[in-house]
Amino acid sequence: MGLGEWIGFLALIVSLYILWKIRAVILLFFTAVILAIALNRLVRRLQQSGARRELAIALTVGIVLVISSVFIFLIFTRLSSQFEQLTQLIPLGIEKLRLWIDWLQAKVPELALNNIPNLDNLSQQLQTLSQWIISHIYLFLSNSLSLVINFLLITVLTIMLVVNPVPYRQVIIRLFPAFYRHRVDEILTECEKNLMGWLAGIALSMSFIGIASTVGLFLLQVQLPFVNGFLAFLLALIPYVGAILSVVPPMLLALLDSPGKAGAVLLLYLAIQQIEGNFITPIIMEKQVSLLPAYTLALLGAFGSLLGFLGLLLALPILIIAQTWVKEVVIKDILDRWETAPSRKP
Q: To 10 degrees, the CA torsion angle through 73, 78, 83, 85?
């Protein structure tokens, strides 16, 4: 390689290193972009109703600030203390599970237990899984100063993007050649459409799962129903994996009372997932972009391990945007227009 190529390669490495170091800020900015897209859609609806844009923005920002303040207040006053209780009760539930497994092994013939894989390691696996769930979410919510700073940063960025979104959009468009800028504008509009479809669907799904889980656990008299319902609500953002992760803490808490109650919790969550999958999802399926499960799970695992809990929550919208760009640029604009070269005659 020549000197210019080496300089370009080193510049790429340095850029990737800098992006990695500021990955937390990038994730917060991406969160602000998603929120700004949703709020801008609400602003447009208010404008269509006859309100001026300034008034529509003020009403939208006011509504969001009130909802966010109530949300933060609930976390600090109720859920924070319940998370601490949950971290103390989960090990007791795991110990109860270990004792129940020992009793099961003493009562059931060894030959029958041989057909159950990893029974001896079940409690250890559940402990690892539960500690991962609780520690990541608790650390994400319990650091008051960090939570307030991140909240303020996201709020300021979101308001800036909502008040004047055109310059930020133009910056992205101008990064492309002049002949392709109109097409980039269309792709950005398609990304916005797909993100809004995902937001509408996930908001309805999360609300149903969170409320149904809280009410069900309250009726079953499982400890800490509100924090477990909040976990179910939050983990509903994560497709496939979230449903499995959310059922572990309430089952362990129910096991402190009896194995039968733990089974009832499992049936409750299965019923909620069935209702959500068969009734809620079909209603919103037309607005959602289709994602391949294998790619989704792989990305969730990568983002969860590399970027933490916030990266895990944002993995799906990032995948939606990436899939939209690949579909529009690589497939439609390049591959679909790639004509076979005519064969040369000898």
A: 160
